[in-house]
Amino acid sequence: MSTTNPEIDSANRRSFIGLLGAIFIGLIGLVMGAAGSIYAVFPAFFSSKSKKDGLWYSLKSLDQIPNGISKHNFTINKQTGWANSQTEQVVWVVKENQSLNVFSAVCPHQGCLVNQQANQFVCLCHMSKWSPDGTKTDGPTPRNLDRLDHRVTNSNLEVNYQNFKIGVSEKIPLT
Questions:
Q1: What is the pLDDT of residue 79?
Q2: How far is CA 75 from the centre of its chain?
Q3: If DSSP codes are grouped into helix, strand and coil, which group holds residue 138?
Q4: Who's near 104: CB < 8 A, 6+ residues apart?
Q5: φ, ψ for residue 14 (rounded to 5)?
Q6: Residue 17 is part of which domain span?
Q7: Are residues 84 and 33 in the same domain?
Q8: How many Å apart are CA 175 and CA 166, to the nearest integer?
């Protein structure tokens, strides 16, 4: 007959179950940590749009754009990581017969919205003014209005919208 101490058997079972529990909790932590890391890093490696050619946004058909100065709104869909957001942007189009210029409606001085008054552009925040060709005529703005690249595709006006650094004399694109 063998003699076993019930206290030792009980202690061995408890330590074995404790070890299994620790291993199980460790595996759960490892799996959750790996899944969380992949979830956080994945969007950085798999972007849906390339910025190589820029992001072109369609405004309107050329036939729908009147001669003179006209204001145009459009929506930008942006994906930052897992978050999708929409922002409405405003541009000014100056059309004289077949000539087109597209300007950002963001004041280069402090980022306020540029309006149009009496055949000129005006920022009502600090009364900066520009002529219809975007040239600075008055006020504290450090530079001309920011001209945006544009193209005509299938009779539609498209703009390569981007933001620029405010408060500086050079036109510096922001990424």
A1: 77
A2: 11
A3: strand
A4: 91, 92, 114, 145, 146, 147, 148, 161, 163, 164
A5: -65, -45
A6: 1-46
A7: no
A8: 13
